[in-house]
Specification:
- Helix content is about 25%, strand content about 30%.
- With about 350 residues, the chain is of the alpha/beta class.
- The protein folds into 2 domains: about 160 residues, Alpha-Beta Complex (Quinone Oxidoreductase, Chain A, domain 1); about 150 residues, Rossmann fold (3-Layer(aba) Sandwich), CATH 3.40.50.720.
- The radius of gyration is 20 Å and the shape is globular.
- The relative contact order is 0.15.
Protein backbone atom coordinates (compact mmCIF):
# COMPACT_ATOMS: atom_id res chain seq x y z
CA UNK A 1 0.00 0.00 0.00
CA UNK A 2 1.37 3.42 -0.97
CA UNK A 3 -1.38 5.67 0.46
CA UNK A 4 -2.79 6.31 3.89
CA UNK A 5 -6.58 6.04 3.98
CA UNK A 6 -8.25 7.99 6.76
CA UNK A 7 -11.78 8.30 8.17
CA UNK A 8 -12.48 11.99 8.73
CA UNK A 9 -15.34 13.98 10.23
CA UNK A 10 -17.57 15.32 7.45
CA UNK A 11 -20.12 17.02 9.72
CA UNK A 12 -20.69 17.35 13.43
CA UNK A 13 -22.87 14.63 14.90
CA UNK A 14 -26.26 15.75 16.18
CA UNK A 15 -28.37 13.17 17.98
CA UNK A 16 -27.55 9.69 16.62
CA UNK A 17 -24.39 9.22 14.56
CA UNK A 18 -24.96 8.55 10.85
CA UNK A 19 -22.58 7.24 8.21
CA UNK A 20 -22.85 10.54 6.32
CA UNK A 21 -21.21 12.31 9.29
CA UNK A 22 -17.98 10.65 8.13
CA UNK A 23 -15.96 10.57 4.92
CA UNK A 24 -12.87 8.87 3.51
CA UNK A 25 -9.70 10.76 2.73
CA UNK A 26 -6.35 9.72 1.27
CA UNK A 27 -2.87 11.04 1.74
CA UNK A 28 0.77 9.97 1.81
CA UNK A 29 2.06 7.56 4.40
CA UNK A 30 3.71 9.73 7.08
CA UNK A 31 7.38 9.46 7.97
CA UNK A 32 8.35 9.20 11.65
CA UNK A 33 10.62 11.90 13.06
CA UNK A 34 13.18 11.41 15.81
CA UNK A 35 11.52 9.74 18.80
CA UNK A 36 8.52 8.61 16.78
CA UNK A 37 7.51 5.32 15.17
CA UNK A 38 5.09 4.41 12.41
CA UNK A 39 2.29 1.93 13.09
CA UNK A 40 0.37 -0.11 10.56
CA UNK A 41 -3.04 -0.21 12.23
CA UNK A 42 -4.65 -3.64 12.33
CA UNK A 43 -7.72 -3.27 14.56
CA UNK A 44 -9.79 -0.25 15.59
CA UNK A 45 -11.76 -0.34 18.83
CA UNK A 46 -15.29 1.02 18.52
CA UNK A 47 -15.86 3.09 21.66
CA UNK A 48 -18.98 4.99 22.82
CA UNK A 49 -16.65 7.69 24.13
CA UNK A 50 -15.86 8.68 20.53
CA UNK A 51 -19.40 10.09 20.29
CA UNK A 52 -18.35 12.87 22.67
CA UNK A 53 -15.48 13.91 20.40
CA UNK A 54 -17.47 14.41 17.18
CA UNK A 55 -20.12 16.98 18.16
CA UNK A 56 -17.89 20.06 18.15
CA UNK A 57 -17.95 20.46 21.93
CA UNK A 58 -14.94 20.15 24.20
CA UNK A 59 -15.04 17.65 27.07
CA UNK A 60 -12.00 15.83 28.47
CA UNK A 61 -10.53 15.88 24.94
CA UNK A 62 -10.67 18.64 22.37
CA UNK A 63 -13.38 18.02 19.77
CA UNK A 64 -12.36 16.62 16.41
CA UNK A 65 -12.65 19.41 13.81
CA UNK A 66 -14.48 19.08 10.50
CA UNK A 67 -12.06 17.31 8.20
CA UNK A 68 -10.09 15.94 11.13
CA UNK A 69 -9.22 12.26 11.40
CA UNK A 70 -11.33 10.38 13.94
CA UNK A 71 -9.35 9.30 16.98
CA UNK A 72 -9.79 6.00 18.71
CA UNK A 73 -7.88 3.16 20.37
CA UNK A 74 -6.16 0.74 18.02
CA UNK A 75 -3.73 -2.14 17.85
CA UNK A 76 -0.99 -1.83 15.25
CA UNK A 77 2.43 -3.13 14.29
CA UNK A 78 5.55 -1.01 14.14
CA UNK A 79 6.74 -0.81 10.52
CA UNK A 80 9.33 1.97 10.86
CA UNK A 81 10.93 3.34 14.00
CA UNK A 82 13.04 6.31 15.05
CA UNK A 83 12.49 5.42 18.70
CA UNK A 84 14.91 3.00 20.38
CA UNK A 85 12.17 1.67 22.68
CA UNK A 86 9.96 0.44 19.84
CA UNK A 87 11.38 -1.92 17.25
CA UNK A 88 9.99 -2.84 13.86
CA UNK A 89 7.65 -5.81 14.12
CA UNK A 90 6.46 -5.08 17.66
CA UNK A 91 2.78 -4.66 18.42
CA UNK A 92 1.37 -1.59 20.16
CA UNK A 93 -1.95 -0.52 21.66
CA UNK A 94 -2.57 3.23 21.87
CA UNK A 95 -5.08 5.99 21.27
CA UNK A 96 -4.40 6.72 17.61
CA UNK A 97 -6.66 7.52 14.65
CA UNK A 98 -8.89 5.75 12.15
CA UNK A 99 -6.29 5.41 9.40
CA UNK A 100 -4.04 2.81 7.82
CA UNK A 101 -0.86 4.27 9.30
CA UNK A 102 -0.40 6.32 12.47
CA UNK A 103 2.58 8.19 13.85
CA UNK A 104 3.08 7.33 17.50
CA UNK A 105 5.51 8.34 20.26
CA UNK A 106 6.43 7.39 23.81
CA UNK A 107 3.95 9.81 25.41
CA UNK A 108 0.90 8.59 23.45
CA UNK A 109 -2.27 8.17 25.50
CA UNK A 110 -2.98 4.56 26.55
CA UNK A 111 0.31 3.46 25.02
CA UNK A 112 1.20 -0.14 25.78
CA UNK A 113 3.71 -2.40 24.10
CA UNK A 114 2.03 -5.75 23.53
CA UNK A 115 3.47 -9.22 23.79
CA UNK A 116 0.76 -11.33 22.17
CA UNK A 117 0.62 -14.81 23.57
CA UNK A 118 0.24 -17.93 21.46
CA UNK A 119 -3.38 -18.98 21.29
CA UNK A 120 -4.74 -15.51 22.10
CA UNK A 121 -6.03 -13.64 19.00
CA UNK A 122 -4.46 -10.25 18.38
CA UNK A 123 -7.97 -8.75 18.28
CA UNK A 124 -8.40 -9.50 21.99
CA UNK A 125 -5.80 -6.82 22.73
CA UNK A 126 -8.16 -4.12 21.51
CA UNK A 127 -11.04 -5.33 23.70
CA UNK A 128 -10.92 -7.89 26.50
CA UNK A 129 -7.15 -7.36 26.82
CA UNK A 130 -7.38 -3.71 25.79
CA UNK A 131 -9.48 -0.78 26.90
CA UNK A 132 -12.65 -2.72 27.70
CA UNK A 133 -10.98 -5.28 29.93
CA UNK A 134 -8.73 -2.75 31.65
CA UNK A 135 -11.64 -0.37 32.25
CA UNK A 136 -13.76 -3.11 33.78
CA UNK A 137 -11.00 -4.50 35.98
CA UNK A 138 -9.65 -1.17 37.18
CA UNK A 139 -13.10 0.35 37.62
CA UNK A 140 -14.21 -2.49 39.87
CA UNK A 141 -11.01 -2.65 41.91
CA UNK A 142 -9.77 0.94 42.15
CA UNK A 143 -13.13 2.73 42.20
CA UNK A 144 -15.59 0.04 43.26
CA UNK A 145 -13.22 -1.48 45.83
CA UNK A 146 -14.79 -4.84 45.09
CA UNK A 147 -14.81 -7.60 47.71
CA UNK A 148 -16.01 -11.19 47.69
CA UNK A 149 -19.60 -11.67 48.80
CA UNK A 150 -20.86 -8.34 47.48
CA UNK A 151 -23.76 -7.79 45.11
CA UNK A 152 -22.78 -6.07 41.88
CA UNK A 153 -25.06 -4.68 39.15
CA UNK A 154 -23.70 -3.82 35.70
CA UNK A 155 -25.56 -1.82 33.04
CA UNK A 156 -24.99 -2.27 29.28
CA UNK A 157 -24.05 -5.75 30.44
CA UNK A 158 -23.93 -7.31 26.96
CA UNK A 159 -21.44 -4.74 25.72
CA UNK A 160 -17.66 -4.90 25.68
CA UNK A 161 -16.97 -3.32 29.06
CA UNK A 162 -20.15 -4.51 30.76
CA UNK A 163 -19.67 -8.15 29.83
CA UNK A 164 -16.10 -8.04 31.13
CA UNK A 165 -17.13 -6.26 34.34
CA UNK A 166 -19.76 -8.89 35.09
CA UNK A 167 -17.39 -11.78 34.53
CA UNK A 168 -14.65 -10.16 36.60
CA UNK A 169 -17.11 -9.55 39.45
CA UNK A 170 -18.13 -13.23 39.36
CA UNK A 171 -14.49 -14.30 39.48
CA UNK A 172 -14.07 -12.06 42.52
CA UNK A 173 -16.80 -14.02 44.29
CA UNK A 174 -19.72 -11.64 43.88
CA UNK A 175 -23.39 -12.00 42.98
CA UNK A 176 -23.83 -10.27 39.62
CA UNK A 177 -26.92 -8.86 37.92
CA UNK A 178 -26.80 -7.39 34.41
CA UNK A 179 -29.07 -4.73 32.95
CA UNK A 180 -29.69 -5.04 29.20
CA UNK A 181 -32.11 -3.86 26.53
CA UNK A 182 -33.60 -7.09 25.17
CA UNK A 183 -34.58 -10.59 26.21
CA UNK A 184 -31.97 -12.01 23.82
CA UNK A 185 -29.24 -10.04 25.56
CA UNK A 186 -30.61 -11.12 28.94
CA UNK A 187 -30.30 -14.75 27.91
CA UNK A 188 -26.81 -14.13 26.51
CA UNK A 189 -25.31 -12.63 29.65
CA UNK A 190 -26.65 -15.41 31.87
CA UNK A 191 -25.84 -18.36 29.60
CA UNK A 192 -22.56 -17.21 28.03
CA UNK A 193 -21.12 -14.70 30.49
CA UNK A 194 -22.27 -16.37 33.69
CA UNK A 195 -24.25 -13.52 35.26
CA UNK A 196 -26.55 -14.68 38.05
CA UNK A 197 -29.55 -12.83 36.61
CA UNK A 198 -30.57 -10.19 34.08
CA UNK A 199 -33.01 -7.27 33.98
CA UNK A 200 -34.49 -5.89 30.74
CA UNK A 201 -34.78 -2.16 31.30
CA UNK A 202 -37.22 -1.82 28.41
CA UNK A 203 -39.83 -4.15 29.93
CA UNK A 204 -39.00 -4.34 33.65
CA UNK A 205 -39.33 -1.89 36.51
CA UNK A 206 -35.58 -1.70 37.09
CA UNK A 207 -35.55 -1.01 40.83
CA UNK A 208 -38.28 -3.54 41.60
CA UNK A 209 -36.67 -6.22 39.43
CA UNK A 210 -33.22 -5.72 40.96
CA UNK A 211 -34.60 -5.81 44.50
CA UNK A 212 -36.57 -8.97 43.73
CA UNK A 213 -33.36 -10.66 42.62
CA UNK A 214 -31.19 -9.10 45.34
CA UNK A 215 -33.32 -8.24 48.39
CA UNK A 216 -30.06 -7.77 50.28
CA UNK A 217 -29.42 -4.62 48.23
CA UNK A 218 -26.63 -3.60 45.87
CA UNK A 219 -23.08 -2.88 47.00
CA UNK A 220 -21.55 -1.81 43.67
CA UNK A 221 -23.28 -0.45 40.60
CA UNK A 222 -21.02 -0.37 37.53
CA UNK A 223 -22.76 2.29 35.44
CA UNK A 224 -22.23 2.51 31.69
CA UNK A 225 -25.44 4.31 30.74
CA UNK A 226 -26.52 6.94 33.29
CA UNK A 227 -29.96 8.50 32.78
CA UNK A 228 -33.10 6.60 33.85
CA UNK A 229 -31.16 3.44 34.70
CA UNK A 230 -28.88 5.31 37.10
CA UNK A 231 -31.91 7.09 38.53
CA UNK A 232 -33.58 3.78 39.29
CA UNK A 233 -30.44 2.12 40.64
CA UNK A 234 -29.97 4.86 43.25
CA UNK A 235 -32.97 3.38 45.08
CA UNK A 236 -31.44 -0.11 45.26
CA UNK A 237 -28.07 0.73 46.80
CA UNK A 238 -26.94 -0.34 50.23
CA UNK A 239 -25.65 2.19 52.75
CA UNK A 240 -22.07 3.08 51.82
CA UNK A 241 -22.59 1.55 48.39
CA UNK A 242 -20.33 2.59 45.53
CA UNK A 243 -21.29 3.66 42.01
CA UNK A 244 -18.58 3.28 39.38
CA UNK A 245 -19.42 5.93 36.77
CA UNK A 246 -17.80 4.48 33.67
CA UNK A 247 -20.05 5.95 30.97
CA UNK A 248 -23.29 7.81 30.30
CA UNK A 249 -24.30 6.37 26.94
CA UNK A 250 -27.97 7.30 27.40
CA UNK A 251 -26.97 10.98 27.10
CA UNK A 252 -24.37 10.76 24.34
CA UNK A 253 -26.99 11.47 21.68
CA UNK A 254 -28.74 14.18 23.71
CA UNK A 255 -25.99 16.36 25.10
CA UNK A 256 -28.17 19.47 24.82
CA UNK A 257 -30.99 17.85 26.79
CA UNK A 258 -29.53 15.28 29.20
CA UNK A 259 -31.75 12.99 31.22
CA UNK A 260 -32.70 14.38 34.64
CA UNK A 261 -31.62 12.54 37.76
CA UNK A 262 -34.34 12.99 40.38
CA UNK A 263 -33.25 10.49 43.04
CA UNK A 264 -30.05 12.20 44.17
CA UNK A 265 -31.32 12.41 47.75
CA UNK A 266 -30.46 8.71 47.89
CA UNK A 267 -26.79 9.73 47.68
CA UNK A 268 -27.23 11.48 51.02
CA UNK A 269 -29.59 9.12 52.80
CA UNK A 270 -27.60 6.01 51.83
CA UNK A 271 -24.20 7.75 52.16
CA UNK A 272 -23.20 6.58 48.69
CA UNK A 273 -19.96 7.18 46.85
CA UNK A 274 -20.20 7.84 43.11
CA UNK A 275 -16.95 8.35 41.23
CA UNK A 276 -16.28 8.91 37.57
CA UNK A 277 -13.04 7.63 36.13
CA UNK A 278 -11.06 7.72 32.91
CA UNK A 279 -8.70 4.90 32.09
CA UNK A 280 -5.66 7.10 31.24
CA UNK A 281 -5.65 8.32 34.85
CA UNK A 282 -4.94 4.76 35.98
CA UNK A 283 -2.36 3.90 33.32
CA UNK A 284 0.05 2.60 35.96
CA UNK A 285 -2.53 -0.02 36.98
CA UNK A 286 -2.97 -1.42 33.46
CA UNK A 287 -0.05 -3.91 33.37
CA UNK A 288 -1.25 -5.75 36.48
CA UNK A 289 -4.82 -5.77 35.18
CA UNK A 290 -3.70 -7.19 31.85
CA UNK A 291 -1.64 -9.90 33.52
CA UNK A 292 -4.64 -11.09 35.52
CA UNK A 293 -6.99 -10.92 32.54
CA UNK A 294 -4.55 -12.90 30.37
CA UNK A 295 -4.34 -15.55 33.09
CA UNK A 296 -8.14 -15.84 33.25
CA UNK A 297 -8.51 -15.98 29.47
CA UNK A 298 -5.83 -18.66 29.16
CA UNK A 299 -7.66 -20.64 31.85
CA UNK A 300 -10.91 -20.35 29.89
CA UNK A 301 -12.84 -18.72 32.74
CA UNK A 302 -13.60 -15.52 30.79
CA UNK A 303 -15.70 -15.66 27.64
CA UNK A 304 -14.80 -13.19 24.90
CA UNK A 305 -17.46 -12.26 22.35
CA UNK A 306 -16.34 -10.13 19.41
CA UNK A 307 -18.32 -8.29 16.74
CA UNK A 308 -15.79 -7.75 13.95
CA UNK A 309 -16.39 -5.56 10.91
CA UNK A 310 -13.98 -5.97 8.00
CA UNK A 311 -12.49 -3.01 6.13
CA UNK A 312 -11.56 0.54 7.04
CA UNK A 313 -14.30 1.93 4.75
CA UNK A 314 -16.89 0.22 6.95
CA UNK A 315 -15.64 1.85 10.16
CA UNK A 316 -18.38 4.54 10.24
CA UNK A 317 -21.06 1.88 9.80
CA UNK A 318 -19.59 -0.18 12.65
CA UNK A 319 -19.53 2.84 14.93
CA UNK A 320 -23.12 3.80 14.12
CA UNK A 321 -24.29 0.25 14.82
CA UNK A 322 -22.49 0.31 18.16
CA UNK A 323 -24.17 3.57 19.14
CA UNK A 324 -27.58 2.27 18.12
CA UNK A 325 -27.27 -0.65 20.52
CA UNK A 326 -27.31 -3.28 17.77
CA UNK A 327 -24.04 -4.95 18.71
CA UNK A 328 -23.17 -7.31 21.54
CA UNK A 329 -19.73 -8.05 22.90
CA UNK A 330 -16.74 -6.12 21.68
CA UNK A 331 -17.26 -4.11 18.47
CA UNK A 332 -14.11 -3.63 16.42
CA UNK A 333 -12.93 -3.12 12.87
CA UNK A 334 -10.31 -5.27 11.23
CA UNK A 335 -8.36 -2.98 8.94
CA UNK A 336 -7.81 -4.55 5.53
CA UNK A 337 -4.04 -4.76 5.19
CA UNK A 338 -3.65 -5.90 1.57
Amino acid sequence: MTINRQVVLASYVIDAAKSENFAMSEGPIPEPAEGQFLLRNMYFSMEPAIRGWVDGKANYFEPIPIGGVIRGPSVGQVVKSCNPDFAEGEYVFALNQWEDYSICHSDAILLEKLKPEAGIPLSYYVGSLGGAGATAYIGLHEVGQIKAGQTVVVSAAAGATGSMAGQIAKLCGCKVIGIVGSDDKAELIVEQFGFDAAVNYKTDDIAAAVMAIAPEGVDIYFDNVGGPVLNAMLKTMNVYGRIVACGMISDYNRTDNPNPITNLWEMVSRQLTMQGFLLPTYQDKVPAAMAQLEEWIRAGVITVLENITDGIVNTPKAFCELMSGKTVGKALVKVDTN
